[in-house]
Amino acid sequence: MLFSLGAAKPPLPSINSIHSNACSPTKYFPYMRILYLITRSDAGGAQRHLLGLIRALRTSNEIAVVTGQQGFLVERAQHLGAQVFVVSDLIRSINPYHDILALVKICRIVRDYRPDIVHAHCSKAGLLGRLAAWYANIPSVYNPHGWRFVPGVPIKERFWSLLGEWIGARFGGAIITLAESEYDRALRYHIAPQSRLSHVQHGIPDCNLRANTAHGDVVNLVMVGRFVPQKDHITALRALVGLPENVVLLFAGDGPTIQHAQAVASRLGLEHRVKFLGSCSNVSSILAASHICILASHYEGLPATILEAIRAGLPVVASDVGGVRDCVIHGQTGFLVPPRDPGALRAALSTLVAQPALRASMGAAGRRLFESRFTVDVMIAKTCELYYRLTGIKPLRVQSDERFPREFTASPVA
């Protein structure tokens, strides 16, 4: 159910209901009202990260979400029981008219909802959400999900992004970075003092589906991600040229550059070897049916698509940008290559295509890395600890042996 800006605040549940409904592998949760903000509602990594927080915390907290559009996130958040406020003026691009309107509406939501903490995700929602929280004297947390003042981003966008991040940090509270490179860059650019920075390793729920990377006459390469310039699907297509004919490239995702990518595939004579799957609701199944995961991005934070790939036991060949090297160990779980370099990408893929045993060993190493560093339990526990510290709310002890619910095998992406 969508709520209007003036929606009445529902009563708090009893302590008994909190205890009886809680399910988590951790022993403590706060009871609080959490307001999450994020600009877009499509099925990207930041949105799935936010849904992971909601899924883990919903039974012992009251949760609301502010976003700028209808879509995947709205549907899933409502299904998980969160209140949702859609603010259509909350858009990604810089537009003073819409930005001011969005700020006013967000301030009104914060005033009426009265959250204990505001947790904003991505740059635009991060700036406006922190301003609204500061105005209401409410503690805030911010996840950038990858800085946009990095190489690979257009210079003009880098400038405005850096300025916005610096301004937002003056009004905000804690900043959570999901990758070590994000943390280091924040310090290097003096975004915020070290005391306000927290590195919380990204984690995702486990899934039963596993890839069988050493078998099959056809070798499936898979790239999961929106069709936008950042992801550079064209480099992936050019890398496919020269690989054996039994190598097929699967693209899972949709977006504004998909028609251009289809035209390039046709021009390169690859129509019979490239499958454009569009927006998928079965990404976990697609990964399990593949042999190698690739990511050719110009820049990244800590890509959820790589975490999903190593969770499935896939070796990964990816651009050496941002936080990618946090989850791809070169020569052990896959290969890192320079961005915008089809030749280097092709060479790494050729090695894996020709050696099924190497695919299997790297995939197994990636799976071990996932189990040791990227499960959701630690991420949730560290995020809750930060909430406790900022709000002063003491955690409630939860008596439950249940684990976090496993992610449904459908993992949509747009």
List keywords for this structure.
alpha/beta, seven-stranded parallel β-sheet, six-stranded parallel β-sheet, 414 residues, disordered N terminus
Order of strands across the biggest sheet?
Answer: 4-3-2-5-6-7-8
Number of strands: 15
Order of helices and strands: HEEHEHEHEHEHEHEEHEHEHEHEHEHHHE
Secondary structural class: alpha/beta
The overall pLDDT, averaged over residues, is: 88
Number of helices: 15
Determine the fraction of residues in helical runs and give it as a percent range: 40-55%
Beta-strand portion reads 15-25%
List the uncertain runs. Answer: 3-28, 398-414
Q: Tell me, briefly, the overall form.
A: globular
Report on this model:
Helices cover 41% and strands 16% of the residues. It has 15 helices and 15 strands. Residues 3-28 and 398-414 have low confidence and may be disordered. The chain has a 7-stranded parallel sheet with strand order 4-3-2-5-6-7-8, sandwiched between helices. With 414 residues, the chain is of the alpha/beta class. Strand 2 (33-38), helix 2 and strand 3 (62-67) form a beta-alpha-beta unit. The longest helix is centred in the first third of the chain and has 18 residues, at 96-113. The two termini are 23 Å apart.
